[in-house]
Design a protein that fits this description.
The protein is mostly helical. Helix content is 57%, strand content 2%.
Length: 315
């Protein structure tokens, strides 16, 4: 979804720089975004915030027309998000994740930024963006608001650092180049042209690379040999699986015990009870948790807490 986010934000910023509403085709980006990843509401929120700059930056006599075009753009974009299996329920599902965030406590990328290299880099990036935006805070007020929102989300949940890294440079580059003249290009450069020879070499290198390499999924989350061994021994029925094996098992047609759909299918105290059982010192709580759900086989990491329980459990 990252290329879609990039196109969306670049389109919004380009509209602001031109003093017009976003291009007519942009709402179509919301259809794949809403079907691919639950971050799309942030795209709508950012569009709404930046619409404020688009309206107030326009001449007084033109504000009404600009406001109507932005409102139409936002309305069509919101409607486009309903083109999904959830339809109009899509936003309700995402709001429910934050309303009852049981799963968030157990997923690393939802934890706050740590005092490590990523956290230090994030702080520096936030500070540099403000250097470009704050001097003319009146005209950049809405971009500053968007940056503060993304900075807050990034600090609360480390997963938003990637979104910050994509969005904020595009918000800050215009004001930064207007303030620091050395950042401006002296004159527009013609796009480089690809010669037939260069194109042929690139195609040859691509063919050689594809011939010599065999890209495969990370074996740490795709235990194909283990699953095949389980099948060869006739293991069927309810499985207990490592959380990170969920997507692999779904693709293999194996109904999972738990997987990444934790915000919808495994709420209501399930994850809390599961993690308490896994983290327990003895084996009785974990054993009882599985027996209550009639688990008959398992596939877990060999050095995991679950593997320790299975090694110690009688029978």
């Amino acid at each position: 979804v990252l290329p879609i986010i990039l196109l969306w934000i670049a389109g919004l910023v380009a509209a602001l720089e031109r003093g017009t509403a976003p291009a007519f085709w942009m709402p179509a980006l919301m259809v794949p975004w809403a079907n691919m990843h639950a971050s799309y509401p942030l795209g709508l929120v950012l569009a709404g915030v930046l619409a404020g700059e688009g309206v107030f930056a326009a001449a007084t006599t033109e504000r009404r027309g600009v406001a109507l075009r932005w409102i139409l753009f936002l309305a069509v974009s919101i409607a486009a998000t309903c083109v999904s299996p959830y339809g109009t329920r899509d936003l309700q599902v995402i709001i429910g994740l934050f309303a009852a965030p049981e799963a968030l406590a157990y997923i690393g990328e939802w934890q706050p930024l740590a005092a490590d290299l990523q956290g230090f880099t994030a702080v520096v990036a936030f500070a540099l963006s403000m250097v470009g935006l704050l001097p003319k805070w009146r005209s950049n007020a809405f971009r500053i608001l968007a940056t503060l929102l993304l900075g807050y989300l990034m600090a609360r949940h480390s997963r938003f650092a990637l979104l910050f890294a994509i969005v904020v440079p595009l918000l800050a580059v215009g004001p930064a180049t207007r303030r620091f003249h050395g950042l401006r290009a002296n004159e527009p450069n013609a796009p480089p042209r690809l010669s037939p020879t260069t194109l042929a070499v690139l195609l040859l290198l691509t063919g050689v690379t594809l011939t010599l390499t065999r890209p495969r999924p990370d074996p740490s989350v795709t235990p194909a040999a283990a699953l095949q061994a389980a099948f060869s021994h006739g293991l069927r029925g309810p499985v207990y699986n490592d959380y990170d094996f969920g997507g692999f098992l779904i693709l293999a047609g194996v109904p999972t015990f738990v997987d990444g759909r934790s915000d919808q299918l495994f709420a209501g105290g399930f994850l809390t009870a599961l993690n308490a059982a896994v983290d327990s010192r003895g084996d009785d709580a974990f054993s009882a948790f599985l027996e209550a759900r009639q688990v008959s086989w398992s596939i877990v990491r060999s050095q995991s807490a679950e593997a320790r329980h299975f090694t110690n459990m009688k029978g």
